[in-house]
Amino acid sequence: MIDKNRDGHPIRCTIRSKTLRLLIVEDSADHALLYAKILREGGYDLVSERVETAGAMRAALSRGSWDVVISDYKMPFFNGLAALQLLRENGLSIPFIMVSGFIGEEMAAAIIRAGAEDFLSKSSLSRLTQVVERAMNETGERRRREHVEQALRQSQGKLRAIFDQAFQMMCLLTLDGTLLEANKTALDFIGAKESDVLGKPFGSTPWWNLSKEVHEELHKGIKAAAKGNHVRFETSHLAVDGRQHHIDFSLKPVRNDTGHVAFLIAEARDITERKWVEEVLRQSEERFRSIVDNTNDGILIVDTTTQKVLFGNPMIHQMLGCTPKELIAMGISDMHPQKDLAVVKEAFDKLVRREIKVAQGIPVKRKDGSIFYADINSFPVQLEGKACVVGFFQDVTERKQMEEMIQKLDEERERRVAERTAQLESANKELEAFAYSVSHDLRAPLRAISGFAGVLAEGQAKQLNAEGQRAVEGIRAEIGRMDELIDDLLAFSRTGRQKIQPAAVDMSALVQAAFDECSAQASGRDIRFKLHPLPPARGDIGLLREVWTNLISNALKYTRQKNVAVIEIGGRAENGSLFYHVKDNGAGFDMRYVQKLFGVFQRLHPMEEFEGTGVGLALVQRVVLRHGGRVWAEGKVNEGATFYFALPRHVESSSHDS
C-alpha cells in the first residue's frame, strides 16, 4: 500500500522533517493503515507500501531502499520469519520489527534468534513509534559500528575506536568517580552525548538515575576500587528506550608505572536477555519438576558404573516405602529380592546397552520386605559427566498376578486335554480293535449264509418257483454288499493303525496313476479329465494314493448320469500349506448336509441311484487328518461338487491316529 495523492505522488506528512520509508508485510489492509496512522501521529513523514507474499516483498525490495520493515508474524500465504529470512538473503540490514496478536516466551525467543530488531504485540501498538525509533537507532548504531570496525582494520586499531566500539559499555573514571571518558555503547545506551556526561560524577549521570540503594552500592564500589580492589556486582540501568535493563557491572583499578592506582575502568554488560533466558529456564525447570513430581510412574536415575541411586521422584518413594534420604543411600542390589538379583542385573545391563527398551515384570522389594512387580522403561543420559540411566517404574503387580492365574489355568487345561486325549486315544484303539474283530467275526457266518444260498440255488432250483429264486439271488447280492462293507471297514480300521512313513510325493504323477486305474472301470464313457500342475508334497505315498483314488472314483461315480463328465484337479502352495481339489460336474449335494459327507456309512444319495458303502470319504478324512491337514467340500444339487484338502509342507511320522 503506497499512500499517494490524486496525481499519483506519495503523500508526505510535514509535522517533522523525518522522512520514513516503511515496508509493511501484512495481509490486513486495516492493520497496515493503523501502523501508518500511528507513525504519522508520531511525527514521521511517511512513505509506505504493503505486501503480503514473498514475491511481492521481493519486488518491493528491488524497487528501492526502505528504512524499516514491519511484518505480521503469521499470514495465510506468508509469515514474518520467512519475510525476515528473505530480507537477510538480499543482504539488507534494514530494521525488522515483528508484530503479532500474541507474543509468548517461545515466540519471542524465536523472533530474537532469527535476527529481528524488536517484537511488538498488536495490543501494544501505542508503543510502535518508540519501537521504530529504537530499531532505527540500533540499526544506525550497528551500521556506524560496522564503519568504525572497517576504519579499525584500516588504521591498525586506534585506541579510541576500539574503546568506542566495544560490545560492552565502558567508562574511564578518576579515583573519586568523576567521568573522564565514555564509549559510544555506553552513551547510546542512555541516548546522551559526551558533553552531557563527561566531567560529572559518575553517580549523577543518567545511567544511575534509579534507586538510592544503587547509588550507595556504586559509591562503595568506587572507594573499594580506588584502594586497588576489583569490584563486581549486578545492578539495573534505565536505557534510552525507557526500559530497565539488567547490568553486569565491574570496576577495575588501573595502576601507573609506580604501582599506584591512577584511574578506574567501569565496564558494564547488558545481561537482560541472559536474565530473561535464565528466568525462562527456571520456569521450564519448575514445569518439568512439577511433571516429574506428579507423574503416576516412579522415576529413578542410577549411575551405570556404581549402580547407585542419584535421584528419585515422590512416586518411587511411595512405591518403595522409603524416604528420599534412604533412597539416595540405596543401590540396585538393595531394591530387589536376593534370589532375583542375577536376573535383575542382567536386565539392567541390557537396558544400559540399549539391547532392550523395557524390562518387564521385574520384582521390586519395598522397605518392609514386601514385593511388587514393575515394568521398567529406560534411556541413557549424561549427568555431570556421569553415565546414567533414567528408569520409569510402572506397577504391574495386578497384571502379573493375572498372568500367573492364567498360566495356572492354561496348565490345568492342558492337563485335562492331555487326559481326555489319552482317554480318546484309548477309546479309539478299543473301537478299532472291536471293529477289526467284528469284521473278522462276520466273515464266518457270511460264508455260511453264502454257502446255504448256493445250495438252495443249485440243489433246490427245481423245487423253487420264480419268487423263491429271486429271493435266493437277493440273499447272495446282499451277502456281496455285506462283504464289501466288511472290506471297507477293515480298510478304514487299518488306515487308523498304519504308521505314517513320510517321503517326497510327486502329486501330479500320483493323481495321473490313480485316474488311469479308476477310469479303466468306466470304459465307454465320455470323460474329460483336466489335471493342472500340482505342488509336490511330503507324506505317506500309499495313504495319499487312497485319498486320490477315493476322490477320483467318487467323481467318476457321481458324473455317470452326465453325457460328458468333466473332472478337474488342481492345487497350490500358500502360507506354509499345500491345497488340492477335485472338481466334477456331477450330481452334487445339498450343502445343508455337508457335515454328513465324511462320516462312516453316511450317504446323501439312495443306493438304487449310486452304489457305495459310505466309507470312502471317511477314509479320505482320516488320512488327511493323520497328515496334520483338513478336508472340506462344496456342492450344489445337479451342478457338481468340489472336494478340497490341505496338507502341511512338513509331515511327521506317526504310528497311530490321534
Short description:
With 658 residues, this protein is α+β, with helices and mostly antiparallel strands. The longest helix is centred in the middle third of the chain and has 63 residues.
If you had to describe this structure to a student in words, what would you say it looks like?
The structure is a single chain. The longest helix is centred in the middle third of the chain and has 63 residues, at 397-459. The chain starts with 17 loop residues before the first strand and ends in a 10-residue tail after the last strand. The protein is an alpha+beta fold and 658 residues long. α16 (507-519) crosses α17 (541-558). A 5-stranded parallel β-sheet has the order 2-1-3-4-5, sandwiched between helices. Strands 7-6-10-9-8 form a 5-stranded antiparallel β-sheet, sandwiched between helices. A 5-stranded antiparallel β-sheet has the order 12-11-15-14-13. It has helices at 29-41, 54-63, 80-89, 105-114, 128-155, 159-165, 184-190, 194-197, 212-226, 272-294, 314-320, 324-328, 341-352, 397-459, 466-497, 507-519, 541-558, 616-626; strands at 18-25, 44-51, 68-72, 96-100, 118-121, 169-173, 179-182, 231-238, 244-255, 261-270, 298-303, 309-312, 358-365, 371-383, 386-395, 503-505, 527-531, 537-539, 565-574, 577-584, 630-636, 640-648. It is elongated.
